[in-house]
Amino acid sequence: MPTPHIEAQPGDFADTVLMPGDPLRAQFIAETFLEDARCVNRVRNMLGFTGTYRGRKISVMGSGMGIPSLSIYAKELITEYGVERLVRVGSCGAVRDDVAVNDIVIGMGACTDSGVNRARFNGHDFAAIADFDLTRHAVEAARERGTKVKVGNLFSADLFYTPDIEFFQSMKRHGILGVEMEAAGLYGVAAEFQARALTVCTVSDHILKGEALDSQARQTGFSEMMAITLEGLLRDDEEAKR
Hints:
By secondary structure, this protein is an alpha/beta fold. The chain has helices spanning 23-33, 67-81, 116-120, 132-145, 167-173, 183-192, 215-241; strands at residues 16-19, 35-41, 48-53, 56-61, 85-94, 104-112, 149-156, 178-180, 196-206, 211-212.
């Protein structure tokens, strides 16, 4: 049934949903990478679409910015629409010297300064991690394409304009690959409601070096990230059939 945030009918969503933050990016993904895509949600302009990729039914829907927004949509997609796999596809900022703009980062885990996972885990720390097989299949897809990816920890921040800029140095020392705003929340929701989740990001800027991609370079990296993500999902499907 429709929810206060999603108007789609039962069966409108595939069991796999890609989740960029920007609803217009969801529309771009649907129009560029999916066949026969149709819009299934327009509530609050958080656009959602369902189409096919190489014959496989796949949906894409915006999540909004930040863990609270994503958590609403991810929870309802799982519990009300039967979604089993959710993949955040977005961008992140780098802090490490060996991570450069336009690199592709796969979030095996996600640290956070948000309190949402402690709230859902009785006040205790929760290890927010991606699904192993989704991670493995995305890495395998990248290797087959000859694309180098970095796999490790992300940091999901509550504040985009943080006053604690010295903390970026601590992230660097602890090996954080990218700073973004949603992955830890997605992994927490997926764990609570028995779904599988992954985050794949392109590095759009380097926070400590002050470097950033122009719009054309961002699109090139995004297209390769999408290819890796979609091919990884197909690998996951094939393994499930064996």
